[in-house]
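Illustration: Family 65 glycosyl hydrolase.
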Amino acid sequence: MNQDYIKPDNWSIIEEGFDRERVKSSESLFSIGNGAMGQRANFEENYSAETFQGSYIAGIYYPDKTKVGWWKNGYPKYFAKVLNAPNWIGINVEINGEDFDLNNCTQVSNFRRELNMKEGWYQRSFEATLKNGTEIAVDIKRFLSLDLDEVGVIYYEITPLNKDAKIIYKPYIDAGVTNEDANWEEKFWEPLDVKKSGNEAFVTAQTFKTHFKVTTFMQNTIWSRGEKQNMSPISVDTKADKIVFHYDAIVGKGEKSAIQKIGGYTVSLNHTDTVSAAEKVIQAALAKGYKQLLQDQIDAWAKIWEMSDITIEGDVKAQQGIRFNIFQLNQTYLGKDSRLNIGPKGFTGEKYGGSTYWDTEAYCIPFYMATKDQQVARNLLTYRYNQLDKAIENAKDNLGFKNGAALYPMVTMNGEECHNEWEITHEEIHRNGAIAFAIYNYHRFTGDYSYIPEKGLEVLIGIARFWHQRASFSKNKNQYMILGVTGPNEYENNINNNFYTNYIAKWCIDYATAQIQKVSLEYPSDHKRIIEKVKLSDAELQEWNKVAGNMYFPRSEEMGIYLQQDGFLDKDLVRVKDLDRSQRPINQKWSWDRVLRSPYIKQADVLQCFYFFEDHFSKEELERNFDFYESFTVHESSLSPCVHSIQAALLDKMDMAYAFYLRTSRLDLDDYNKEVEEGCHITSMAGTWMSIVEGFGGMRVKNDALHFSPKIPKEWGGYSFKINFRNQILKIAVDHKETKFTLEGTHELTVYVNGKAVLVQPKN
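Result:
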């Protein structure tokens, strides 16, 4: 753990005390979003010290030209940036002739931030003394509406404490923004138009290259002593990409003055005329009013929590951690739009670029399947189907593959590869397997097979073709190998026969073959349509099966473990416990050469295979591999601790399972990897949910039934969660004495607890 300033609380993230050194970290942790847009917790007023400004709009991106020391064939031409969107939250303030800036105040006291996860709002309050001697109390509340998801609201209140004050509010919208991570320090936005009408203003800009058009809007209302003031701006400053309103307020000592700002974005993804759409959105928000908008927000979050909440008794930090993760997942993606996906930083930062990694299929889909309607997970699968042609193009143009072989991108916005590190782009090909596994996982959990004949089988065929062509035959070993890859453990590049990659390649071919046969028998018209479309022959299937049936898996018979890759045991096998703590994290302390030569594992690799295919191996095999590889794992990927927590629970290593749970649930809150200021780890947060549901709860789906093997950390009094299993809501409550089930549905449900059948009747 590297930071400990977030106050333990069951439902809120709370910071007390103003510290310039943690402003950027808090900007990440207190971020807000509503699935359509989001923003870091930047101050509304000017702040002259170090800050990382960030507002983001779902689906809006820019193809930033790749910047490398030298070009290699097959490099993606660009790295897709999650764009820093125009700033609508800005409210600069002048008090008695001095610009208000917390960095320049002579004193700041009673500083407090709260992110209320139960109700979906962010609040900041403090008292400050300006250089001119004016003392003020400030209270600001901000939220992004879930119901009107193009709208955000700020209520910014100031109370002079020691003297009367002339306050000038300067709300603005500004499209002259840049990205922190721009390769070439260029601007991504082209201003098109600035418009104002009364207390409303609109700045329209479009992205260069991709030509997304966005209208950023604001509407301002001044309040005094709780009364709405019929006030227009006294002046307006206008530039090509920015507009600033000025409002004067004479405020007596002890009196409250406030500006209410409605702002947000309307985008060309959803509207032909973005300005008129913005005008309508403003009117809809004004018609509701601040109090109703806030109440609607509280009600919308109550509905989300009713299904997705996990309760933990007796451990506030554990409770706070899981709710923070669930909250951020729901802020990032709500499943309304199949064009969207779940970026690794969500709306909290720009690092990694792209909106889609294999994280979605491997970690996020289980969360969304179980806590929402199955259509949400199906939308995520459809997203990949819609990009199949691009995946085929990627394999053909960049790797020279043929015949419809598909390699899905490591990072993408629109189906094109936009990750520009060679060892990741062309070697971390295991991502193909996660996409196939998600199709299997969806059918296994929901029971909905229709996706496969409608869309999924084409994806499976493209992926199987890729693995068939990517494998090479070794005369020396008389087996098929997959050479020159990077596994989930990215601290090993360009290695041969990564166990996880080889195993999932074989599984993909076997699974695709089985589904082709099933569709031919049960959906003959779909089978005929697909086979004719992809031109698949029996001869090709036979070639696939030769590869799958004779795949090489590196193994140490002496140790009884699978090897992460050829030659792993040739390394200097110094365990993590014997590594000097001053050398951690190694990705920030060591050269890349030293990292690659070490035995240290960034994230679960062999164990990722055991997680996906648990029923393919014995518990004894898992334990041998777990004990060996865990000792070399530094967990410097956010995706690692959750898998270890699940498997430690399965192996009855409960102290270890609990420690890994805390690490995954509080990865950002406690900044384990010393990087939270860059943004939160959104996609791995779904792994935190899995750590409880699949780890401590032991939930599995076997033979169309739910199985549980509940366990409970000694630190907890009990825990509970809900699962939407095939349109019936099942609540599971576990304590140290028993496991209880409550069913919301129309018919009884048989579940299995430690292998024993339990019949659960609907509570109604």
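Reading the tokens back as a structure: The mean pLDDT is 95.
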